[in-house]
Amino acid sequence: MVTTSVGRAATPEVAELTRETGRLLEDLGHCVTEVEPPVPGSFPEDFQLYWALLASFIVLNGKRSFNRTWDRSRLDNLTLGLFSHFKRNLHKVPLATARLAASGKVSQRFFRDHDVVLTPTLGHETPLVGHLDPTQEFDVIMDRLLDWVAFTPLQNATGEPAISLPLATTASGLPQGQMFAAARGQEATLLELAFELEEARPFARIDRS
To answer: Which of 35, 43, 85, 139 could cross-link with 39 by S-S, CB 3.0 to 4.6 Å?
Structure first.
């Protein structure tokens, strides 16, 4: 179980909901241990730079990919800010992408001793509409995004399977997903665990009061 990502932590409420899921797993006979995130300290910056690299493809190749009406000045501040970040840090891209590729090996070592890792799907309760408005200043958007999606980028980088289950509800009544990730090729393990948890704690249904 992991409740703190690299440089980012789940809110106290979300962390406690995740530990509650851990206690449910223990009641079902699983062994649960809280551990540090299985990623190097450079991971957040490397991932943001890779994200910026992808944004640069949109900015630089939009007209070729779409049509002559393409106007990059109409792109939102998130995309343009990522493009600016890419240009400022172009020299760091090769090493950053190499470290991201190596994160898969770090994760593989982690799964030698652990079958599954449990984290919150998102770092805090679902925000109000406008909290992630891409027309805000880039630094504001990025900081808020990284707080919210602090736990999902590792699977984006490694390609390892993960599943989000609606196992928790915040004090204000909003669903809070719990994410389980496993080693490459272990999708069956995640599905078996999901069925076990759904039977033990049936998922909330939006078509029922």
So the answer is: 43
From residue 80, how far is each of 75, 85, 113 by CA, in Å? 7, 9, 42
Quick one: the chain helix, strand, coil %, rounded to 5?
A: 50, 10, 35
The enclosing H or E element of 164 equals strand 162-169
Integer Cα distance of 200 and 97 in angstroms: 41
Question: DSSP letter string over 86-140?
Answer: HHHTGGGHHHHHHHHHHHHHHHHHHHHH-SEEEEESSSSSPPPTTTT-TTS-HHH
Q: Is 52 exposed, middle or buried (CB count within 10 Å of its CB: 0-12, 13-18, 19+)?
A: buried
Distance CA 2, CA 79 (A): 30
Amino acid residing at 45: E
pTM of full prediction above 0.85: yes
pLDDT (0 to 100) of residue 207: 72
